[in-house]
Design goal:
The protein has about 140 residues and is mainly α. About 55% of the residues lie in helices and about 0% in strands.
């Protein structure tokens, strides 16, 4: 069963990442997707352009260095945004809480969901952390 978030929870998580006040223990796999769906749903935001800097700044503010082995990961961020964007596009009128629950109820709810598309050595390579790396198992469906 995926975690349940209200629209207010999603807003609080996203704003907490933006202003770097979200408590670090709350920055979970599900919270990453909560921030993603919030950013993608806002016409005044460009999630693909803004999320990398927001995550890096949030990491630094919470004591997580952005290195070749931890912190911000470009390929995971881009793939997750693509998955969230596709999911939202299929349900344009759904409340964010409902859309997020649906997203997390599927494969994206598992922290290892990307291993359907990348091998571990490629996904967790310094290159994939720094820049977008195409899947080496199968193409993303979105």
């Amino acid at each position: 069963m995926p975690p349940s978030f209200s629209d207010a929870d999603i807003d609080r998580i996203a704003r907490g990442v933006i202003d770097r006040t979200l408590p670090k223990p709350e920055w979970t796999h599900a919270a990453h997707f909560a921030a993603a769906v919030w950013m993608l749903s806002r016409p005044d935001r460009d999630a693909f352009r803004e999320m990398p800097a927001l995550i890096r700044a949030y990491n630094e503010a919470t004591g997580v260095p952005n290195t070749d082995t931890e912190g911000y990961h470009e390929t995971i961020t881009r793939a997750s945004l693509r998955a969230a964007r596709a999911h939202l596009a299929d349900r344009p009128a759904a409340p964010l809480s409902e859309a997020l629950t649906g997203l997390l109820s599927g494969p994206c709810g598992r922290s290892d969901w990307l291993l359907r598309y990348w091998t571990k050595p490629v996904l967790f390579s310094p290159q994939a952390r720094r820049t977008w790396v195409e899947p080496d198992v199968q193409p993303l469906p979105f």
